[in-house]
Each structure stands twice: as structure tokens, then as C-alpha cells.
Amino acid sequence: MTKRVEALVNPQVLAWARRMAGMDEELAARKVGVKPERIRGWERGELRPTITQLRKLSDVYKRPLSLFFLETLPVDDPSPTDFRRFDPTATEPLSPELRFQIRDARTRREAALELFEDIEEEPPQFTLTARLSDDPETVAERLRQVLLADAQPPLGDPRVVFNFWRDAAERAGVLVFQAVDVALEEMRGFSITDHPLPAVVLNIKDAYQARSFSLFHELAHVLL
């Protein structure tokens, strides 16, 4: 008979990881394949998950195994500076899928910064700024000039147009990612305005023309 190997995890970190994933105990239990009482027992420290169960938790919460052994709670994941929905009045909590995409965008941005540091190069600096009191048309023209440089934007195919502006934004110092597995009704785009290398994340399920619009919408938030 195989010996049951329990993981000596921090119960508080288990609870934190579930909350940060946007899951209640019932949803987490369904995804892990256990009863909600077991999730509660693990988070109270009354029970311990096996190594196999911990791997499943790691997969469901999308966290590294090592995180669950930390002695103190990690810092809460910050929300994006801005994110755009079909319905701007919607107040529903963020889904687990969107929460992961926000965290993934921050991780990818940090990885890009580390890469520039490793190769001993400075990342491109997006220095254009604006104020809420500025004339929108003037700001839009300034942004257009920064992105265009000496290039001419293509016409016609929305996919080609979107790829042109995405590449232009990245040359100007703004990372552009595309989110997967997030409902279009929940998110069309969001931005992370930290400098250097601010990031814009767009929903890959959106039409190319809509993605181009969302790109400029989020770039406006990066400017402010």
C-alpha cells in the first residue's frame, strides 16, 4: 500500500491563494475534486493535503508549489489601473480567468524588465504624458505621431491595421498582450501603467477593429 504523503503547507496561504483566484470554497472543491469541507479543513489547518492534492491546488489556483510553503502571506495582487467592459456600469467581481490574466500580465512585464537587465540594455521609454484638462484631439495627434514615427499606417484589412498599431506601441515602449479564456462581456482591455514598460492587455476574442480601438483607449490611460 502506498504511503500517504502530506504536504506541510501554510493554511493561511492556501486560503489566500483561493481568494486571489476569485473562487469560493465550493468552486475550488469542484475543480480540485474534493468536498468543500476538505477545502475548509485545509485552510483551517485541521487537515493537510497530500502532495498530489497540492499539485492539483497549484494547477487550479495557477500558483507555484513553493508558494504554499511560505511562512507569511504574499502581498495581495493589485488590480489593473483600468479595464474596459462592454457594460461600464457592471459591478460583478472579477472572474478567476480574468484575475489570472491580470497576474500573468504583471509576471510577463517583470520578466521583460529582467531580460533587459540581463542583457544590460535600457528598455524603451514611453515618455508621452497628458493631463485630463488637455484637448483630446491634440493628445490623440501627439500619440499618433509618437507611434507612427516615419511609418505610414496601412489601410483595409483590420488584422493588418491592428498588428501595425500593436507593433508601433511596443516600439514606443508599451507592452501589448492578448488575454485568452476571458469572456468578452467581462473584459475588452485593461492597462498596467507602471513605468518603464507599461502594459496593455486586450481580449483576443474581440474583433480586430475593436482591439485597435481598445488599444488606443488603454494607451490614453497610460498617458494620464
Folded structure, characterized:
This protein is an alpha+beta fold and about 220 residues long. It folds into 2 domains: about 10-70, Orthogonal Bundle (434 Repressor (Amino-terminal Domain)), CATH 1.10.260.40; about 80-224, no CATH class. The protein is built from 8 helices and 4 strands; from the N terminus they run ααααβαααβββα. The protein has helices at about 10-20, 25-30, 35-45, 50-60, 95-120, 135-150, 160-170, 210-224; strands at about 80-85, 175-180, 190, 200-205. A 4-stranded mixed sheet has the order 1-3-4-2, sandwiched between helices. The N and C termini lie far apart (about 65 Å). The model has no long low-confidence stretch (mean pLDDT about 90).
Can you tag this structure with a few keywords?
single chain; 224 residues; alpha+beta; 434 Repressor (Amino-terminal Domain); 2 domains; four-stranded mixed beta sheet; 4 strands; 46% helix; elongated
